[in-house]
Amino acid sequence: MTAPTDIATPTNCPAVSGSDHRLVLACGVTLYRGDCLEIAPTLEGVDAIISDPPYGIAHVKGTGGKGEHTRRNIKAIEGDDKPFDPSPWLAYENVLIWGADHYAQRLPRGRWLVWDKLDGLESFDSFSDVEVAWHNRKGAARIFRYMWKGICQKGDKEGGRIHPTQKPVPLMAWCMDQAKVPAGATVLDPYMGSGSTIIAAIRTGRKAIGIEKDPEHFANAVERIQRELNQGDLFRSQNSCLTARHRRMTTARLRLRAMLAGLGTEQWSNQRRIEA
Ligand SMILES: C[S@@+](CC[C@H](N)C(=O)[O-])C[C@H]1O[C@@H](n2cnc3c(N)ncnc32)[C@H](O)[C@@H]1O
After folding, report:
1. If you take atom 2 of ligand 1, which residue's CA is the nearest one?
2. Looking at the domain 15-235, which fold is it?
3. What are phi and psi of 117, to 5 degrees?
4. In the chain, which residues fall in CATH 3.40.50.150?
5. Ligand 1 centre from 263 Cα, in Å?
6. What is the whole-number distance in angstroms between the Cα of residue 86 and the centre of ligand 1?
7. pLDDT tens, 12-52?
8. 52 alpha carbon to ligand 1 midpoint, in Å?
């Protein structure tokens, strides 16, 4: 394996260790660049798998591994040119994986979760309006409504899309709640992509391990996760690497920004909730 491009770490969440393919941050985030099928079996202490694997869209469309993303001038997804095999993940205790309608015949009984990407809009293009996940637990099917379709994307744009199949952070946080992953527990996303699952874990006080095979996606995810950690979110608690002083500074910065924007106390609270 070749070394990842010089990984600089955030000052408030220093690297505990780094190697040619692994970056361990003090705040309970560990990122691997490599093949999850090789790395995951070596990991200990994984409480849940929350992931969005490549599920063979290019294969289904019969485009020989190039698929819809290439048609839109976006790099093809690693592994998207063959049907997804969920079997390596089925032995884990708590597993929630997206794209499950594409490989449903290979799954045991479980429950279904649906992401409604239109959130009230009329259907307006030829792409699917929903995505479906499978959770290896008994229970009711649930729906998450969050607009994220073409150019119609709800607030959480995260500074633009950096991955062709990027999931919204609030969706991945919802998955962790659905899977009842306790605060402080460790979530593994073996197909990390842009790192949305990792950011959702950080924001909700869980620990996270991410694995990504594609060096370019890995580098982009590291950068995005660092940005998130540097930002110093007020609402991180359990998992937080922030000092109390840093938290006070962040609160003061938000209050000042709200004052400059001419907002009152109540609006400031709302603004703070929105920014969370
Ligand atoms: C559907 S995308 C995940 C997107 C992610 N949910 C996000 O929000 O950005 C699947 C990712 O898995 C990666 N991948 C495919 N096969 C892999 C493997 N064997 N090991 C690790 N990563 C892999 C791909 O490069 C791709 O970035």
Report:
1. 193
2. Rossmann fold (3.40.50)
3. -80, -10
4. 15-235
5. 41
6. 14
7. 677 777 776 999 987 899 999 999 999 999 999 999 999 99
8. 7
